[in-house]
Structures are given as C-alpha cells and as structure tokens.
Design brief:
This protein has eleven helices and 13 strands. The protein folds into two domains: 96 residues, Orthogonal Bundle (Hypothetical Oxidoreductase Yiak, Chain: A, domain 1), CATH 1.10.1530.10; 185 residues, 2-Layer Sandwich (Ribosomal Protein S8, Chain: A, domain 1), CATH 3.30.1370. The chain is globular and about 60 Å long. Helix 1 packs across helix 2, helix 1 packs parallel to helix 3 and helix 3 runs parallel beside helix 11. The strands form three sheets. A seven-stranded mixed β-sheet has the order 2-3-4-12-5-7-8, with helices on both faces. By secondary structure, the chain is an alpha+beta fold. A hairpin with a 3-residue loop joins strand 2 and strand 3. The chain is 38% helix and 18% strand.
Length: 355
C-alpha cells in the first residue's frame, strides 16, 4: 500500500506521543524512521514501530533520555545513553562530537547503552552536512543474530558501518551497510510480504544456506510480533570472511573499546564508536570540491549495462526518496498491520489513508 508521507509521519508521531514520549521526541523518532523508508531502506523504517512500542512498554527502552558523560578530554568523550531511544541519544552524541571537533579538527565519541540507533547513515549525513567527514562503527548487544564465517551459530549482531563524506554543492556521499547479508529488518519486511531476502542470507542449524525467514524467526503464530531470537538458524555475514572480520571489528570497537555490551549478552542495546574529522585541518585544500571531482571521475566509468549508469552510495536512495515524497511511501501489508497493532496498544485511532 502507498501512504502519503505527511499522514504516515503524523500517525507514527501520535503513537509515540501516546506511549509516553515528549512531543519533540515522538516527532524525531517518526522523522528518522520515515527517512529510512523514503530512502528505500524499510528495514529501519516504520516496520520498527511495533518493536519500539513493545520495548518502551516493557522498559527495554526509556523515553526522553539525555546522554550522560562518563569521561572526556579535549578530543574524546564516552557517553552513556541510558537505554534512551537511539533517535534521541544518537542525535545528542553527534552534536557533542561535532562541537568537540570544531577546535582540534578531530574528535572521537563512544556511545554506550543506546536504544536502537536506526539507519546509521543519518548520523553520517548530519556530520557531512556540517562539513565533517565521519566514520561510525556500531555493535548490537543481545542474543546475537549473525553467524561468523564458517559457523552456523550466532555470535554477532548485524553490526553496521557508516561513512559520510561532504561534497561541494552536492549531497554527501553516504556509505552505510550491515555486516550481515541483510539487516534483520529486511528479513522482517520480507516476512511481512515485502521484498524477499537473497537465497544466501541465512544459515540453518544443519549448515544449509537459505533465504527462508523461518530460519531466523521460527514459526510465527498469527498476530504475534516476530522475534528473531526464536529461530533455529542465523543470518550470514556479507562478503563471507570479509564481512565476518568487519563484524568482529564492530564488536571490539563499538562494544569492548567503548565499554558497551557485546553480542551474546542481554539486554539489547547499541554501542557506537564515531570519529569526526574536519577537512579544513588537513592539507587537502578544498576537500569537498576535490571529493566531488573524484566522484565525477568514478561516475564517468563506462557502464557494464548501457542502460544503467555507474552510481555512487546515496544516489539510489535520493532518487527513491524523491519518488516516494511525491507518490507516498510503499509499505508491505504486514507492516501496516503491525502499525495498527502498535497504535491500538496505546489507544491511538488508526487513520483512514487518503491519496
């Protein structure tokens, strides 16, 4: 189904406001979730609303939190998110990192005990819009979802990495990917009737490779919220041993080094280690202009398919967002059903969608 952006944002905001979030936090969560859907990444979009509402009701995430400084010096700060919504404490962590980098040209921010941080490209984009290069390593504490290369048991989270690079008079280059073949949310979207996951996305308990979402969720009774902890198998790392190595790095940097929990431990949380770099402090001249020139050089490569020009990270997402802003966000039927369950659980009426 297609849902107009303004109607969907208002609906999602009303759900979180009724669930106990302040108005600004409720709108912030909705804005970030819709931004992911608009970019064509529904794995981190409104498909998350039901889980977020359940977590808030059960105390696994806390509304209206402010990050607390654990330790800091001129260029480094360790923050505790207090299990606040990632859309809130993530924004706070980025703002602190950019402020710290303003004088010395570099800062490092370790955020621990955050709720789900959503699409990490949001944080890279915020830094790039301010003129900074940024690198973000994220880990996922909890029961684990992803098997290491050569294994069939869960040892990692989906552990994303994001990099943002500003350009001159153009949107930034945004590199953002899970270290698993697909993010868990993409499997949930597929389960809801959306785009199927690749046939190599999961490994079963017998070691067989599969694209069957029941490997991750098990059998889901009608009306129940799918729980990825209940399946007999695991997601697989992308790029075989390369993705496995990157996931290991995320757990060690965003988890162990940041003082956060790691995969295989409860409760669920995200840790994020972020590095902010001011190009003005490097001997790169006009970095943004040179980055744009090189990006154009890459795009100028002759395409393997004459009908499909070479694109860079962020190009497809911006085109998708422009189309959906005009025509509405494309939601799987199961995702809309989850939204209605979340709304009714907090006493919010489900709107009649008008195109």
């Amino acid at each position: 189904m297609r849902v107009p952006v303004d109607q969907l944002r208002s609906f999602v905001t009303s759900v979180f406001r009724a669930a106990g979030c302040a108005e600004d936090e409720a709108d912030r969560i909705a804005r970030h979730l819709l931004a992911s859907d608009l970019a064509g990444h529904p794995s981190h979009g409104v498909v998350r609303v039901r889980n977020y509402a359940d977590w808030l009701g059960g105390g696994a995430v806390v509304a209206n939190q402010e990050v607390q400084v654990v330790s800091e010096n001129d260029t480094l700060v360790v923050l505790d998110g207090g299990y606040g919504f990632g859309q809130t404490v993530g924004e706070q962590a980025v703002a602190i990192g950019l402020a710290k980098a303003e004088g010395p040209g570099v800062s490092v921010v370790a955020l621990r005990n955050s709720g789900h941080l959503g699409r990490i490209a949001d944080w890279a984009e915020a830094a790039a819009d301010a003129g900074y290069v940024s690198i973000h390593f994220v880990n996922v504490a909890g029961k684990g979802l992803v098997a290491p290369f050569g294994g069939k048991e869960r040892r990692f989270g989906t552990d994303p990495i994001a990099i943002g690079i500003p350009q001159h008079d153009r949107p930034p280059i945004l590199i953002d990917f899970a270290t698993s073949v697909v993010a868990e949310g993409k499997a949930k979207v597929a389960l809801n009737g959306g785009k199927p996951v690749p046939d190599n996305a999961m490994v079963g308990p017998d070691g067989s490779i599969s694209g069957d979402t029941s490997v991750l969720y098990g059998e889901v009774p009608p009306g129940k919220n799918p729980d990825p902890r209940r399946g007999p198998g695991a997601l697989r790392t992308m790029g075989e041993q390369k993705g496995s190595a990157l996931a290991l790095a995320c757990e060690l940097l965003a988890g162990v080094l940041a003082g956060s929990a790691t995969s295989g431990t409860d409760p669920f949380s995200n840790g994020m280690l972020s590095i902010y770099l001011s190009p003005d402090h490097f001997a790169a001249g006009d970095f943004a202009a040179k980055a744009t020139d090189f990006a154009d050089y890459v795009r100028s490569a002759a395409p393997a398919d004459p009908g499909q020009p070479v694109q860079l990270p962020g190009d497809i997402e911006r085109a998708k967002a422009a189309e959906q802003l005009e025509n509405g966000i494309d939601l799987a039927d199961g995702t809309w059903a989850d939204l209605t369950v979340a709304a009714r659980s907090v006493g919010v009426d489900v709107p009649v969608i008008t195109q």
